[in-house]
Amino acid sequence: MSILEYNGAAIIGMAGKNCVGIACDTRLGIQGQTVAMDFRKVFKMSDRAFVGHAGLATDVQTMDHLLRFRKNLYELREERSMTPRVLSNLLSTLLYEKRFGPYFIEPVVVGLEDDGKPFLSAMDLIGCPVYADDFVVSGTATGNLYGMCESLYRKDMGPDELFETLAQALLASVDRDALSGWGGVVHIITEDGVISRELKGRQD
């Protein structure tokens, strides 16, 4: 088993019309054993940017603290807020710095740019980024997530439809992955603010 599959995760980022969403499951496990059902994998970096980390739970928390520190340092020096694209580049650099002893995480960055357009990126454990206009996925349920997202995704969805699509894709996917699930959280980022909702999933 890969170390990336040790704790389990399922994360989706998806674009809508002037909005973007990110969803994750809440299970923390040690392979087949469930340890907690409220583990945070998606973190709010600003009102317009969220980061999700799939992978080894200890590295998830370490990278959250490190990224938050570097983001705050940037904003103090530059006297402006960090855009999602710059945040993605910073995260990619932090991962590549440690490529010979990497953090075992595969992050997803979503947000709204200054012009209101959605931004989506995902990367591997050494920070090689991929950018998308529709959706990105990460975690142990990626095969299931890709299938569900390709089936349910439509262009220019509004915030409510985007939430419904993310929720259905996440819940249907984690039902077929033994290492993720036990509920979920969906965050929708719009020009007016962030809407966060919790999902109840199967408990088996």
Describe the structure in your own words.
The structure is a single chain. With 204 residues, the chain is α+β, with helices and mostly antiparallel strands. The chain has four helices and twelve strands. The strands form three sheets. The protein has a five-stranded antiparallel β-sheet, covered by helices on one side. Strands 5-6-7-8-9 form a five-stranded antiparallel β-sheet, covered by helices on one side. The longest helix has 22 residues, at 57-78. It starts with 9 loop residues before the first strand and ends in a 5-residue tail after the last strand. The model has no long low-confidence stretch (mean pLDDT 93). Keywords: Cytoplasm, Nucleus, Proteasome. It is found in: Nucleus. This is Proteasome subunit beta. Its main location: nucleus.
CATH architecture: 4-Layer Sandwich
Give the overall silhouette. globular
Spatial ordering of strands, largest sheet = 10-1-2-11-12
Mean pLDDT across the residues is 93
The name of the CATH superfamily reads Aminohydrolase, N-terminal nucleophile (Ntn) domain
Low-confidence stretches: none
* Individual helix count: 4
Might you state the CATH topology name?
Glutamine Phosphoribosylpyrophosphate, subunit 1, domain 1
| H and E order | EEEEEEHHEEEEHHEE
Strand content: 25-35%
**CATH domain class:** Alpha Beta
Task: Count the E strands.
Answer: 12
Helicity, in percent? Answer: 25-40%
Tally of separate domains: 1
Classify the secondary structure makeup into a structural class.
alpha+beta
Distance N to C terminus:
21 Å
Radius of gyration over C-alpha positions, nearest whole angstrom: 16 Å
Pfam family, one: Proteasome
Protein name: Proteasome subunit beta
Keywords: Cytoplasm, Nucleus, Proteasome
InterPro entries: Ntn_hydrolases_N, Proteasome_beta_3, Proteasome_sua/b, Proteasome_suB-type
